[in-house]
Amino acid sequence: MGLFFAALVCAAGLQASSSAEPLPSHALPISLFVIADSHAENFDLFDVRAELKEPATYNEVQSNSIFAIKRHVGVAAGYDQGVAHGSLGLYITVAEWGRWNLGITSPEIGFGRYPVYDRFTKKTVMKTQSTILISLASVHYRGGHLRSIGKDWYFTLEQIFDSRANLTGSQFGFSFSNP
Fold first, then answer.
1. Which residues contact 148 (CB under 8 A, 6 or more apart)?
2. What is the pLDDT of residues 30-78, one digit of tens each?
3. Are 116 and 126 in contact (CB under 8 A)?
């Protein structure tokens, strides 16, 4: 009996509210999720809101001159004359033409897989050894901008000189630079 009475009261309440005018709706100006681009280091809420109102600092504007010195850090690898080689290098580019950067002679620390004569077995075996590589000339094609680290990434082609094997060769890889 109590359940019937409760259902009757609810039905009467629904009947009374359905005859009234519907309430107007309004959009709430609150975003459910707000993700900041790269402001994770600041924990002051007022400063973060002020920084988010500032315009973005990165833009791809063509300059009038093609000469601009940039430093790239990258990795590259190649295979020439039976020697596999790879490197971690600091590239210096002096000219930028559109998305292309042209580099000059730069140092690299690397490794190579060289044939070495083993006296005990009297055979030549392949052994991985460290080496100093010199990037004689490099070309870097800008692939895009990584907002997470604030750097431009480049696809790199280069001519190298291997100081251990006294050989020249070529490598390809990726490098990163400030915009």
1. 38
2. 776 666 666 556 566 666 667 777 766 665 665 556 787 889 999 999 9
3. yes
Overall pTM > 0.85: no
Q: How far apart are CA 8 and CA 12, in angstroms?
A: 6
Looking at the domain assignment, is residue 155 inside a domain? yes
Place of tokens 């809101």: 49
Q: Find the radius of gyration of the CA atoms of the chain.
A: 32
In a domain, 36, yes or no: no
φ, ψ of residue 167 to 5 degrees: the values are: -130, 155
- CATH number for the domain including 92? 2.40.160
State the pLDDT confidence band at 2, using cuts at 50, 70 and 90: low
- Rounded-to-integer distance, Cα 52 and Cα 46, Å: 10
Longest C-alpha distance within the chain, in Å?
104
Kindly give, in sequence order, each residue whose CB lies less than 8 Å from that of residue 160, ignoring residues fewer than 6 positions away.
78, 85, 87, 108, 133, 134, 135, 136, 168, 169, 170, 171
For the beta carbon of residue 146, count every other beta carbon within 10 angstroms: 11
In a domain, 32, yes or no: no
**Number of independent structural domains in the chain:** 1
Which residues span the domain enclosing 106?
Answer: 67-177
Residue 19 has pLDDT above 60, yes or no: no
Q: What angle do CA 89, 99, 141 make, to 5 degrees?
A: 35
